[in-house]
Amino acid sequence: MLNVFPPTKERMQDQAPISHTQDEAQDDADLMHRIAGGDQRAFQKLMHRHLARTVRLAVRILGSTGAAEDVAQEAFIRVWKHAIDWQDPGRAGAKFTTWLYRIVLNLCIDEKRKNRFSNIDDIPEPVDEGPNAERGIEQQEQSRRVRDALGELPERQRAAFVLCFYEGHSNKEAADMLGISVKAVESLLVRSRRELRDKLVEEKP
């Protein structure tokens, strides 16, 4: 029986930008071919490799850890069910991660349309380990304001902003994941930056 385990707190603490080597992409492709044949061990290996990053991306789009975990679980269920439909880079020109994150983004957008953003406080605050407590409080307040402003952006704008500025993807990679053109991503980024700047200026005392 297929077993999709919920992410642990330890997995959630991986905060490095998403990056994949060519060897990892090829290994993902090999695993996907095995999964298409019903190999559950290959599926567990693939999920273990990408689960934390998948949840983190969903958290940044949705603002809620619980909702992000649900989205990640549904995304991997779809990977299992539709593995036979995936084509490797040699034939389709796209990595497994591009396909996976497109599924995640679409699920997040659907979720946000069903439920308005309400659990932004679920995102953990950055830990300030320095001696200046006042500065730490200021940083936390700034982080909260940015998260609040992000939560008010339209779904596509927020997704493009998160992919490029938080996750470190190129405009081309973000375009592939969102299923739009690079020019459209650039337009989304311009609008998202402008709206964020305006919202943050409005909040200043």
Tell me what you see in this structure.
With 205 residues, the chain is mainly α. It has two domains: 16-124, Rna Polymerase Sigma Factor, Chain: A (Orthogonal Bundle); 132-205, Orthogonal Bundle (Arc Repressor Mutant, subunit A). Helices cover 70% and strands 0% of the residues. It has helices at 9-12, 22-36, 40-62, 65-82, 89-92, 96-114, 133-151, 155-166, 171-178, 182-203. The N and C termini lie far apart (56 Å). Mean pLDDT is 77; it is low at 5-19 and 116-129.
Question: What tags apply to this protein structure?
Answer:
205 residues; mainly alpha; Rna Polymerase Sigma Factor, Chain: A; Arc Repressor Mutant, subunit A; 2 domains; 0% strand; elongated
Radius of gyration: 18 Å
CATH superfamily of the largest domain: RNA polymerase sigma factor, region 2, helix turn helix motif
What is the CATH architecture descriptor of the largest domain? Answer: Orthogonal Bundle
- Shape field: elongated
What's the average pLDDT? Answer: 77
- Class by SSE composition: mainly alpha
Kindly estimate the percentage of residues that lie in beta strands according to DSSP: under 5%
- Summarize the main sheet: none
